[in-house]
Amino acid sequence: MARGPLAVGSPYGVGAAAALPSHLFPPAGAQSKNLANYIDVPAPGDPAAVIFSYTVPLGMRLVLNQIGNNFVGGGFSEGSRDLVWQVWDNGSPIEDFEAITGSLGNVAQPTWLSPIIFEEGHTVSFVVLNPAGGPIVSGSGQVGATLRGYYFNRLEAGIQEWST
Description:
Blueprint: H1 16-19, E1 31-40, E2 49-55, E3 60-73, E4 84-89, E5 92-93, E6 111-119, E7 123-129, E8 141-153
Antiparallel strand pairs: 1-8, 2-7, 3-6, 3-8, 4-5, 4-7
C-alpha cells in the first residue's frame, strides 16, 4: 500500500489532497511564482521606488510565502531606517510590511513567512523609500527584493471563497 497523506488508502482518507488548505499547500495545477529584481538606490526624499510589480491574472489567486530584500553597496546599517522597504497591495502598504528596515533574507535566499494572499486583479508591489536627509545617496548601490510563492486558478481548484 502507498504511504503518505496524498495516497489513496492513507490514514487521511481518499481525497485528502482536496481538503488541504490552498493558502498553505499548492492545489493541483498551481504554478510557482518568483518575483525578483534589483534597482539603483533612489535619491533621498524621492517618492517610493518600485522594485517590481505584478498584477494577479483574472480567475487566479496568488499565495506568497517567502520574502527577501537587501542592499548592495556601502553605508547602510541594518535597522537604521536609512532605507525602508514596503510590500503594497494595489498601491497601499500591507500591515506588518510597511516598515521593513533590515534584510529579511536576501533575493537569492529568502525567508519563509506566513502566507500573503492576493486576489485576481490585485497588484502586488515591493518598493523602497530613501528618507530625506539620510546618508544613502542616489546611485551609491542597489536595492533588491523578492517574493516567492505560487498561483492557481481558484475555480479549477474547486475554491469559491476562502473559508474561515
